[in-house]
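pinging the channel bc i need a second pair of eyes. not urgent but kinda urgent?? the chain im working w is below, pasted from the shared doc
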Amino acid sequence: MTDSERLWTGIALSLFLHFGIVISHGPDPEEHKPFRAILEMDGQSVLVQEAVQTGTGLQQASPHDREEAEKLDQKRRAYLRYLDDVDDAIHARRFSGDTSLIGFAICSFTINSDGTFSDASVIRTSGDPRLDASALHAVHSASGVVKRPAIIGPDPIHVSLQVKYQYSL
């Protein structure tokens, strides 16, 4: 037998044995039973993982109530769209005239029921005080600019947002 024939025989034998092991140790019939899991989401801010305060959780509707599920889905979409608009408003106001700034700072703030921001602070510095000050100024400048949708309710929203600077790129 040549080396090539030995190699192909070994490969064929290996595949045969592996296939036999998989077939003989297949799943038990009891493992095919479906199970129900209910997820309750209530985590940190939706924008940055390094959040300081707990974010707003999303509710789950009863599987039998389509109307409630639709309403909660509309609320979720409005909430996420609103946070994207807030992010865009802040990033549109971050320019301070200094095009040498490169990096990011993480700012934390609370969105009040009227859409204004409070308790704004830098929770993770960029290492450049000019960039940190510019990021905080952008948050303050965007306060109240984006109209808060009534569907998401009046509860305060705690946000941690990464404000990025890459002017010269």
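so The domain at 66-166 is CATH 3.30.1150.10 (Fusion Protein Consisting Of Minor Coat Protein, Glycine Rich Linker, Tola, And A His Tag; Chain: A; Domain 2). and The helical segments are 3-24, 66-92, 129-142. — does that match what u expected or am i reading it wrong
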